[in-house]
Amino acid sequence: MALSQIAPALSDLWLNDGLMMQCQQLLIPLQLLALQLMSLVLNLQEHWLPTVACPMDNIISTMPLLCTLYVSSFYLKLATLSHGFSDLKILDYCVIPQELEEFITILSNPSTLPALRKVTLILRVSYGDSESEDESSQGDVENFDTDMFKVLRALCLKRGIKI
Q1: CA-CA to 108 of 20 to 30 Å: which in 2, 28, 46, 80?
Q2: Which superkingdom heads the taxonomic lineage of this protein's source (predicted)?
Q3: How many domains does the chain divide into?
């Protein structure tokens, strides 16, 4: 809550790696800033967080001025992108390979993300047990399916979205 009091006219919020916060600690400040944020970057290390996803869909989807969004599917479920976000122009989205097809399906609807001009999909690494110090906690790396990515590229070209 202090953030919204210190900077009541804040329009750009960037939360980067190294911030050791619980997801719940972000909820109230984001709710208080939701109506004024134009740019939101949640670039937080997921391996410091619980293994259960921490969706902030209800908050992020109510940001009417949002033009730039950098977020992981850990915080914003894919399905949430299918409604709202009418002014979103730039989307940097961290997804696991299995989510690529659903992202393409959502983007295939021309009324979804109508202002989108640039999308960057970032490969999200799924971490093992966050308590563990062994190699399983280093993350399992997969790649996007090449054919699905070609479909995405063609779709973006058709919609005038830079990828």
Answers
A1: 46
A2: Eukaryota
A3: 1
Q: What do you get for the CA distance between the two ends of the chain, in Å?
A: 36
Q: Which residues contact 96 (CB under 8 A, 6 or more apart)?
A: 73, 123, 124, 126, 142
CATH code at position 71:
3.80.10
Give the tens place of pLDDT for each residue, 3-51. Answer: 666 776 789 998 876 555 667 778 888 888 899 999 999 887 655 455 5
CA torsion sign for 9, 87, 85, 73 is negative
- pTM comes to 0.83
Q: Is 19 exposed, middle or buried (0-12, 13-18, 19+ CB in 10 A)?
A: middle
Q: Tell me the three state secondary structure of residue 113.
A: coil
SS3 percent helix, strand, coil of the chain, rounded to 5, is: 35, 15, 50
HSE, CB side, 13 Å, CA atoms: give it for residue 142. 12
pLDDT in tens, 92-128: 999 999 999 999 999 999 999 999 999 999 998 765 4
- pLDDT tens, 46-97? 554 555 566 788 999 999 999 999 999 988 999 999 998 999 999 999 999 9
Domain of residue 90, residue span: 2-159
